[in-house]
Amino acid sequence: MRRKSCNLVLAALAAATVLLGSVAAVLPVYRAHEKAAALALEIAEAKHAAAATAAVQKQIEIARQEESMLTERRRREPTISDTLFVLTHLLPDDAWLSDLRISGAEVQLLGVAASASDLIGLLDRSQRFTDASFRASLTRDQRLNRERFNIGARIAPARGG
């Protein structure tokens, strides 16, 4: 009987050894699998954050390009205040404007002057305006002894930088 109980103990110890060996062999694999899953989750989160960062960087780049485009446009195209400044200094003192319209690259002047034809020459000789022409027939204002005019011209792009 002693031999039987010894065999049972040995069998139990052998089974325990096999079980512990199996656990010892599987445990590192299980832990490695858990670590791999955690790392995969971290990588997915990092990829998501990187994609979000890339999207924000793209928006920043688009905004910079738009700002650059607007800055370049502002540099090339004269402002309304620049156009008014030039007209104020270009037109003679005997020319009076009753209406001034600036629309895009076009300017329209309505008013009276001693010689409206001279205004066309002044505008054409300036570096700010091109293609000056009468938009309506000249009429003589008998009361003021001046010519009524309606002149249109294109605003030239700014020169230089």
The count of β-strands is: 5
Query: Low-confidence parts lasting 5 or more residues at pLDDT below 50?
Result: none
- Biggest sheet layout: 5 strands, antiparallel
How large is the share of residues in beta strands?
15-25%
Q: Please report the number of helical segments.
A: 3
The tally of structural domains comes to 2
DSSP helix fraction: 55-70%
* Overall body shape: rod-shaped
| Topology as a string of helices (H) and strands (E) | HHEEHEEE
Mean pLDDT: 86
Structural class: alpha+beta
* Cα Rg: 44 Å
**Terminus-to-terminus distance:** 111 Å
Topology record:
Layout: H1 2-76, H2 80-90, E1 96-103, E2 106-113, H3 116-125, E3 129-134, E4 139-141, E5 146-155
Antiparallel strand pairs: 1-2, 2-5, 3-5, 4-5
Structure commentary:
With 161 residues, the protein is α+β, with helices and mostly antiparallel strands. The protein has 2 domains: 1-76; 80-155, Gyrase A, domain 2. Helix content is 60%, strand content 22%. The chain has 3 helices and 5 strands. The protein has helices spanning 2-76, 80-90, 116-125; strands at 96-103, 106-113, 129-134, 139-141, 146-155. Strands 1, 2, 3, 4 and 5 form a 5-stranded antiparallel β-sheet that branches. The radius of gyration is 44 Å and the shape is rod-shaped.
